[in-house]
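Friendly challenge for the regulars: who can give me the structure tokens for this chain first? No prize, just bragging rights.
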Amino acid sequence: MNYIDVKKNEDILTVFLKGHIDSSNSQAVEDEIRAAREENPARGLTLDCENLDYISSAGLRIILRLKKEVADLSIVNVSSEVYEVFDMTGFTEMMHIEKAYRKISVEGCEVIGQGSNGKVYRIDPDTIVKVYKNPDSLDDIKRERELARTALILGIPTAIPYDVVKVEGSYGSVFELLNATSFAALINEDPKNLDGVVTMSVDLLKKIHGTVVDQGSMPPMKETAMKWVTYLKDYLPKEQYDKLYRLFDEVPEDDHMLHGDYHVKNVMLQNGEVLLIDMDTLCVGHPIFEFAAMFNAYEGYSAADHSVTKNFLGIEHEQAVEIWQKSLKLYFEDRSDEEIAEIEKKAQLIGFARILRRAIKREGIDNPEARPLIDICFAKIAELLPQVDTLTY
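First reply, four minutes later:
Bragging rights claimed.
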């Protein structure tokens, strides 16, 4: 009889325990675990107890013997009932044991934000949850929590997740956001709010860009951007590729904070205070990379199909374009219209290069559904490259 399932990921073997483990089957369970370890040599061992309903002293003795043999042993997804057994017997003091994550559903919930890595839902008037696209997202959740904590300490207003939950086939981070409304929702409630939203948005953006981050606390944006352009080597004419690579490469390293996915779905108003959410894209770098991401959110991604704007941001395409233009003008209020137009070209060039790489990698260059946007990217890169001699300003 099969009492366990196994999965190996890198140098960790995960054993999935299930049902009951007691004196009647403990020897068989131990034999199966040992056989699995022999077939799948690994440095560490994780016992996943999501489907374990009961464990007796005979089962606990199996774990004690395994602990003596495997220094890197952890037990995860433990139900409250089984966790109580581990706690009463002192196992929680001897080894790493994690309770199972609470399960919730987001069916019918309002989507109040979304980014490249997940969607943010409101699950009740006081609470939101960010659900990650990656089903193995626990490391991503931990990383975002650390980034958000760093930003908060540096004075950036944001919410820190207080719980991790299971949502269907993935995980989510839970935040308390009382009376919080996204900037997109504010515009939908009253289009006359648009100018006020832009003002608050730019004020926060300047605060973010004015924040210096300790080296190593956040990933460098330039490193990621260089991967976008090198990916395009086989798709662009050599002359175009060489210049594009040079332009990206000449952008200096910068230790100022960037959000990385700044738009009206990721900024909220709570009791008069502006809050930033979706913090997994936090990084450091030259602000031109931020403006490229903003251009993509407001115009670039919808260049071939304006309905994308409504689906992505929840506002009309014309409103998105207006927000983009007014944001540039307000952020660079001390610059001339000609200077702002030049900065916009730089952001567009980076943005279309990023979209082109994304579309080819995800959809394939010959995908008929993706081809209209891909063709626009090729055309825009060819148009903008001769007009841009540096990506900085």
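Residues 4-100 form a domain with the Transcription Regulator spoIIAA fold (CATH 3.30.750.24). The radius of gyration is 25 Å. Your move, everyone else.
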